[in-house]
Amino acid sequence: MFFRLWALLCAAQTTLALNFTVSGGQVFTPGLVVVDAPQPGTPLGGDIIEVALDVSTNGRLPLPPYAEGSPSQIHNVTIFLYSYATGKNLTITNGTASANNASLGDIMFQEPGSTVKHVKWTWPDCLVGDGQPTEVDSARGVYNISIRQNFRLNGNDHYTIFDLPISVTNRIDASDERPSCDALNNPLLTPDQVDVMGANDLPDMFAPGDATTVQTSGAGAGALSRRSGASWVSLVGVAVAIIL
Ligand SMILES: *[C@@H]1O[C@H](CO)[C@@H](O)[C@H](O)[C@H]1NC(C)=O
Ligand SMILES: *[C@@H]1O[C@H](CO)[C@@H](O)[C@H](O)[C@H]1NC(C)=O
Ligand SMILES: *[C@@H]1O[C@H](CO)[C@@H](O)[C@H](O)[C@H]1NC(C)=O
Ligand SMILES: *[C@@H]1O[C@H](CO)[C@@H](O)[C@H](O)[C@H]1NC(C)=O
Ligand SMILES: *[C@@H]1O[C@H](CO)[C@@H](O)[C@H](O)[C@H]1NC(C)=O
Ligand SMILES: *[C@@H]1O[C@H](CO)[C@@H](O)[C@H](O)[C@H]1NC(C)=O
Questions:
Q1: SS3 of 2, please?
Q2: Which ligand minimizes its atom distance to the CA of 149?
Q3: Average of pLDDT values for 140-145?
Q4: pTM score, two decimals?
Q5: Where do the domains of the chain lie?
Q6: Could you tell me how far CA 100 lies from the centroid of its own chain?
């Protein structure tokens, strides 16, 4: 059943207590994407990181290409791996693949026909190592997988940011195949500049017991356009009541 998980992450000097909506091994987001893996707080390593995202909202939303004018659709999903502890902000996908898929193209078009997109990203060179970071300037340690969704829900466009904490503390072997972190790194903005709370105009949705509906039919789009935007805003507002 539905429950809330407190993920306690112990970084070098900080302890973060965060609030997630988790049910049946799925992590629910303020958007149409449902995270199948990884779970919050998981230590990761190996050759690659794999982020599994259900982009069908557990069967409520068809796969692209969407019906023209569909009132609900995912415009795009971008993902960054960032950390205020290490100062890195690495591109996992910004919609445009870079050389050798060091950063990935549009994930909505991978694995056509599959409702779950397995986003596989080769760990870049600065994350090589084994265990907790041992040097002050190490890039290993705690990170967020920052999942940014551009989508339309029941006629209204939204952009929401979902930060999923993990730690890069398992073994990652050195290899010539690893992309350079420098080529993937972006400026790291302050929390005020990012303003997650301000960006997110929706709560976590679609966990069991959450009654949010997804309007998808192309035919419904005409009917939608005759309604005022406000009536759909209130539909969303009413529908997100969560039953514990
Ligand atoms: C966790 O989320 C619940 C429901 O939204 C809220 O009532 C609670 O205050 C949150 N706790 C923290 C620490 O954010
Ligand atoms: C994502 O979709 C939004 C809305 O359609 C658009 O403005 C933005 O440029 C797109 N971004 C990417 C990376 O495709
Ligand atoms: C992860 O994201 C949360 C919420 O956006 C933020 O408070 C925290 O500082 C971030 N963690 C790291 C390691 O940057
Ligand atoms: C990059 O990934 C895409 C989608 O999985 C694949 O079609 C393409 O062949 C890959 N390109 C390289 C250079 O690996
Ligand atoms: C996407 O990310 C790569 C790697 O960080 C970067 O080189 C490229 O300029 C980015 N493209 C866009 C359109 O932001
Ligand atoms: C990371 O970089 C991307 C692309 O420049 C940006 O959109 C995002 O806000 C940055 N994240 C942080 C936490 O600075």
A1: coil
A2: 2
A3: 98
A4: 0.86
A5: 3-239
A6: 22
